[in-house]
Design goal:
Blueprint lengths: L2 H8 L6 H14 L4 E5 L2 E6 L2 E8 L2 E5 L9 H4 L10 E3 L1 H5 L3 H11 L5
Helix pairs in contact: 2-5
Length: 115
């Protein structure tokens, strides 16, 4: 992994780190060929021409980067997590109610590998 990515991860607040680790490990497990780089000063998961950005903020995590409608219905099922800019704002408490299969489906659609 790129040193800049590791530095970003190491600097994540302890309250947000478990959620970040959960999504980071899910992305690496589901997509073994994914590249993780720093783009716009945040970890960016790159698969072919597709990107997903995952950033730690005071509210929890922000997840974004896919074309509108390419989230496998995630934002329809969780409209309270969607901002007006198309970003999913994911507080740790909300993420606790969403299983890994649903996040994996979101990422498959966002990264263009949905069946």
């Amino acid at each position: 992994m790129d040193a800049a990515v590791q530095n970003y991860i190491d600097a994540i607040d302890p309250e947000r780190r478990p959620l970040f680790d959960r999504l980071h490990e899910l992305l690496l497990r589901e997509f073994p060929d994914i590249d993780v780089v720093i783009s716009y000063q945040m970890p960016t998961y790159v698969l072919g021409s597709h990107r997903v950005y995952v950033a730690a903020w005071k509210h929890g995590l922000s997840v974004y980067g896919w074309d509108q409608g390419q989230d496998g219905g995630f934002t329809v099922r969780h409209p309270e997590l969607l901002t007006h800019k198309g970003t999913i704002k994911l507080p740790p408490a909300a993420a606790a109610d969403i299983d890994d299969d649903e996040f994996a489906d979101l990422f498959r659609h966002a990264l263009g590998v949905a069946a």
